[in-house]
Amino acid sequence: MIAAPELPSEFHYPQDSDTRFSSDTDFSEAPDGGKKGKKAAGEKGKGGKGVGGAGRMNGHYQENGMENLMLFEVVKMGKSAMQSVVDDWIEAYKTDRDMALLDLINFFIQCSGCKGVVSGEMFRNMQNSEIIRRMTEEFDEDSGDYPLTMAGPLWKKFKGSFCEFIAVLVRQCQYSIIYDEYLMDTVISLLTGLSDSQVRAFRHTSTLAAMKLMTALVNVALNLSINMDNTQRQYETERNKNVAKRANDRLELLLQKRKELQENQDEIENMMNAIFKGVFVHRYRDAIAEIRAITIEEIGMWMKLYSDAFLNDSYLKYVGWTMHDKQGEVRLKCLTALQGLYYNRELNTRLELFTSRFKDRIVSMTLDKEYDVAVQAIKLLTLVLHSTDEVLSPEDCESVYHLVYSAHRPVAIAAGEFLFKKLFSTREPEEEGAPKRRGRQSPNANLIKTTVFFFLESELHEHAAYLVDSLWESGADLLKDWECMTSLLLDDPVPGEEALTDRQETALIEIMLCTVRQAAECHPPVGRGTGKRVMTAKEKKTQLDDRTRMTELFAVTLPPLLAKYSIDTEKVTNLLQLPQFFDLDIYTTGRLEKHLEALLRQIREIVEKHTDTEVLEACSKTYHALCNEEFTIFNRVDIARSQLLDEMVDKFNRLLEDFLQEGEEPDDDDAYQVLSTLKRITAFHNAHDLSQWDLFSSNFKLLNTGIENGDMPEQIVVHALQCTHYVVLWYLAKVSEGSHRKELVSLRKQMRMFCLMCQRYLTNVNTTVKEQAFTILCDVLLVFSHQMVSGGREQLEPLVYSPDDSLQTELLSFILHHVFIDQDDDTGSTDGQQDDEAAKIEALHKRRNLLAAYCKLIIYNVVEMNTGADIFKQYMRYYNDYGDIIKETMSKTRQIDKIQCAKTLILSLQQLFHEMLSELGTGFDRSSSAFCGIKELARRFSLTFGLDQVKTRDAIAMLHKDGIEFAFKEPSPQGEGNPPLHLAFLDILSEFSSKLMRQDKRTVHMYLERFMTFQMALQRDDCWLPLISYRNSLQAGGDDDTMSVVSGYSSRGSSVRSKKTKACVFSLAEESSSSSADMSWQHQSMQTPVMMPSPHLTSTMMRGPGDMREEAKRGRDDSYMGVYALPSDSQQHPHPHTLPQTPQLHQTPIDYNTQVTWMLAQRQQEEVRQQQERAMNYAKLRTNLQQAIRRGTGLMEEDEEPIVEDVMMSSEGRMEDLNEGMDFDTMDIDLPPSKNRRERSELKPDYFDPGSIMDESVTRGFDLAR
Q1: pLDDT (tens digit, 9 = 90+) per residue, 86-129?
Q2: Ranked by mean pLDDT, which of 77-91, 470-484, 661-675 comes out on top?
Q3: What is the model's pTM?
Q4: Contacts of 1086 (CB under 8 A, 6+ apart)
Q5: How distant is the alpha carbon of residue 496 from its chain centre?
Q6: Which of 97, 269, 433, 697 would you label with 285, given CA atoms 20 to 30 Å apart?
Q7: First vs last Cα of the chain: how many Å apart?
Q8: In the 8-state DSSP scheme, what is residue 828?
Q9: CB contact set of 1213 (below 8 Å; sequence gap of 6+)
Q10: What is the DSSP track for 1210-1249?
């Protein structure tokens, strides 16, 4: 590490992170008046003018304003050559260095986005800290953008121009100006001070400038070091000459030159140490990730450029520490910096200690959450592996190996390169002059075997395509050596060579197929590509060459391969896919017709030998690929295909006639023959049109017989259903191209007969048959739905088929009984494989497909949307298995019809509620797991509506409407006075209250009142808590920033509202309620005969939670009663002076107060035994409240909480005292919003806590006693 020599006293650099613009970093004048530092105040420049001379006023430029901006503008535009810009500045510096230096200072200030300008007076008289503070004050803080972060093409180029300017400036000044102890000292001091600023723009820009300045100085130091070495070598050479030949004057010249170079080197190291300790050491751990990334990027450059000085552990440790940075871009810079070091093998010895210390961290970064970081970490390990093979342990390598199967292609490609370097770098060298070995004897043979071994050991046998794609860029030549692969499969091993096992041959064939597909299609496998990429001309040529080469090779070798492995299902299936990637013209141009005949013979033999569905479908696809009318081989292949199909259909009809012959019971051999032939026909019908053979009649006859007799083998029924499905679809494809009405009628008849047949098979005893019938039926209903006439196909309207109610019921019943089952109840697996994990996964996959098929019917409106209620209610119970499907279905249905989707969701909750009642009875516990599960499901449903209340407003309102109607639909079985049977459903419904808009909450609350009686509002038993909870959820948040406090008095100094103002407030409340009542039930009356209107100003609807908390503490009745609040004594017996001035906003019925008084009297009689005991407690409470009320004036100021006494705890006499001089009975008190929110968060009332309302009986009893 470069030692930091003691700096001169006239120029100091900050040494720790706590430094803040001290005088040590100012542009201070040297005490001795030497060349270092600023000029004296009266000293003139060469131009004859002082720094603060003409052209400047009040610290700002006047005439030379454009001159200030010129440097910044030129660099920003980037149109001028940077060399000329710097040369112009250097000329100005030589003319007047103070003026030029001031321009450079302002350049850095303006590059930071600051609008301020450093004037000559400021430069001469102010310290660094004062200048930066002044610039900070003039910084435009309206926007957080500054040149380095601004968007746009101009600003994107600015960073490069800015960095280039600094590099060119140092390069042009490296021979003289940077050693004048003025320019660099001033610039470094300025950048050091700015880099310690609290302003991000200053800190970011100055750090970038300082780091680029350091990089430029490193280049200068490197050149000096080279010159010193050359001078030293010349000196040694000259000194070693004979005395007669030695030139002493040259020796002295070389000594003098070396001394000057050494002084310059020391000066440069001085500057570099100042920047490193003053900027880097503090900014590499800056709070801003971009700044940290800049420092790490540049230190990597220093170590790479000047490794003798910087490539040591003292500097490497900063990179190692920063690899743990929490920001991906910083970690990425660390890795790229290290790559530049590990790429140079000469530097490996200096990196040994660092590698051993931070190797584990680098290996762990291959699994970084940022894919870019993971890619670079793998590339770095590849360089480490390339430099030395002993550093990485087998465990380290294995952690990278498995990444070749990553879904992220760049990670997989990097891992493939690492794998290729590790496993395939030991290629056998070929002897010069020796003939090139081909086939099994080629150098690639062992490497291909190694690939097969790796693939088998990874135990991911279904992902060969991903392995091939990972190795494609690094080992394409190896993977495209198909001649070697076929030789390994066909040729016998040489003596001493171990032959491939059956498992290895299977893996090799699969890898070979994947390489052929990759070469022919030129795109990655499914899950890795980001879309089709436009191929370059070179890539297209390579693709054509590869297709030609593979066709020429496999056209010859494929028939013998098929003949060798004809009985192996897996090998044959993969080999039969090869012709799909052939260039079929090669068969004609290459005169390979005999090999085509051999291929067709082998395919025919395979069809006759095999009954496996995968093999038969592979044969069908091969025929389809070869039967292309564009190629001349079409006729030859078409004849072979027609002959094969004729024989199969004739055989099927003959076997079917014997199989269905009356009076004879078919044996197992006949059933097998029918099944095998039907399998072949079905497999071919998938890809080929077999309409000319009229398979519908024979298959329908077979299915009908199975229904009548009930003893048809399941596989025959399954394939007959599938074959008939293909018949209908091929017929539809033919009709869609244009046909007569007769064909439409025939297709419509066949389709409806087939749907009826599938519906009948839904009740089959065999699960496999039912699943097949269900899947096909869903597909047919979707294809022949009303969607088929879209896109200008109105002629197909007669084919539209909508399922009737019975069919919809059967489909839904099938889903409920075969999809929503426990894993152990699944009877689909056989042979005791239920415990097998693979069998469980396969069964789950099958059930997911069944559910997805039905959900598509819901989404495309084939079945009624409300049938989705039975699906949605399973969301929580089967979340792990089907949660994604159900959630997507809800999302799609909401896009189609928001209101109907909401009605379906509430219907699903109602169904679950009914099921719970039937299971637990009417007296269930609301804390039971069943009820809590329904509430949690409602909460999940609520979250799916999102945050945009405007879009979901109507849907949420309709949901509440249906929920309220359901809750009050059934009366209580115990008779009047008891809660309705479904009242607890309101507790579930309250989960959706937060999704209501504020005005809609009031409207829903009024709609709720239509179903309530007056007695319901007074109930407080536990069985009525759902109603209380739901009403509170509708009232919460009704008015966020104000509270309406009902009181007969308030403290002195409170804001008093006139009667006119109160009347206006109430009128607006009524208008708001009416304006929000635009939902579907608004046309109905909002008052029922059993409800009595209550005074609006005594409602807690307008109250904030903070006020209600205080009421709960005091034991008020109206803390839970909403619009049915009980009148207080002060309202029943108002003061004679205030009674005439009470606004008559409602004409309350005469018997209202009478009825309330009677009910209170009844409660008083029940609680008289507790009155005396609690009276003392109340007296103490009242005394405390009176003292609090009389604390003084000013209680309604911004910082104070209003102290108001409960109207239920105020006597008439006390009201007279407190209301003296006031002309109102009820007051609306508006708290400051901030205070209201703070109290609301601190005082959330618990309306279900009996302790919070335990004293209201004493309150009422004491008031009545007086």
Answers
A1: 998 999 899 888 888 888 888 888 888 888 888 878 877 777 67
A2: 470-484
A3: 0.70
A4: 1006, 1007, 1009, 1010, 1077
A5: 56
A6: 269
A7: 93
A8: S
A9: none
A10: --HHHHHHHTTT---S----PPPHHHHHHHHHH----TT-
